[in-house]
Amino acid sequence: MSRLQEIIEHNTKFVLNKKYEKYKTTKFPDKKMVILTCMDTRLTELLPEAMNIGHGDAKIIKNAGAILSHPFGSIMRSILVAVYSLNAKEVFVVGHHDCGITGLSANPILDKAVLSGVTRDQIDMLRNAGIDIDNWLQGFSCVAESVEQSVNRIQRHPLFPKDVPVHGLLIDPETGKLDLLVDGYENLGLNQKEQMRHSI
Questions:
Q1: Domain 31-104+139-199 CATH superfamily
Q2: 58-63 β-sheet, strand order
Q3: Residue 16: strand, helix, or coil
Q4: Are 93 and 168 in contact (CB under 8 A)?
Q5: Looking at residue 193, what is its pLDDT?
Q6: Residues 160-198: pLDDT tens digits?
């Protein structure tokens, strides 16, 4: 049986048995949070548990490395939609130790693309069209610095509201331990009472 067929058969039983009922919620995040994190499989269930995020509590955006690489790409658009249309009041950028993007360079990916049938001419055509695929496929050397850069890019975006805190954290993919890198409340100059009111 193919993976697709396995999924379709499971889904048929899932719907018939009304297993979806326990997942009912609204499109608005109950804890008014939006989280940008990595697509690493180790974080799928660990991160929500480690952050006390239940079903429906947060908008979670995932990509390779929890990187905001383009100010007008789909990641920033999703954050802005979460804030302006879905009532998110705080942003959390959560990178993780032992990230597969650390030290990533374009050449190994492009070599594998060629082995899978992409031609060197196609790659050269992209470069000749002005697309910097080497930079686009490059990872980072330090995950903490990358998280801080993403936090700064969000905060400084011309369409991002100045009263929304943006936090930066690192999570251990083995234990779930969180390390605070950027306290978004401090960047806004909020005292403890204002922080509590802001989170409500």
A1: Carbonic anhydrase (3.40.1050.10)
A2: 58-63, 33-38, 90-96, 166-171, 178-182
A3: helix
A4: yes
A5: 52
A6: 999 999 999 999 999 999 999 999 999 888 665 565 566
Q: Is the dihedral of CA 37, 200, 57, 81 positive or negative?
A: negative
- Asked whether 60 and 154 are in contact (CB, 8 A), the reply is no
Q: What is the pTM of this model?
A: 0.91
Region of 113 (left: φ > 0; alpha: ψ -120 to 50; beta: rest) is alpha
Here the tokens at position 131 are: 């697309």
Query: Which residue(s) pair with 182 in the sheet?
Result: 168
User: What gap in Å lies between CA 1 and CA 7, rounded to an integer?
Assistant: 10
Q: Encode pLDDT of 33-43 as tens digits.
A: 999 999 999 99
Tokens of 185: 């409340």
CB atoms within 10 A of CB 151: 24
Give the number of other CB atoms < 10 A from CB of residue 150: 26
What pairs with residue 126 in β-bridges? none
Lookup: tokens for 66: 């929890």
Q: Which pLDDT tens digit goes with each residue over 55-103?
A: 999 999 999 999 999 999 999 999 999 999 999 999 999 999 999 999 9
Per the structure block, which two tokens stand in for 62?
Answer: 């995932």
Q: Are strands 33-38 and 90-96 parallel, antiparallel or unpaired?
A: parallel
Q: In the chain, which ranges are continuous DSSP H helix?
A: 3-16, 43-50, 74-84, 106-115, 120-128, 133-136, 143-155, 184-188, 192-199
Cα(82)–Cα(97) distance, integer angstroms? 26
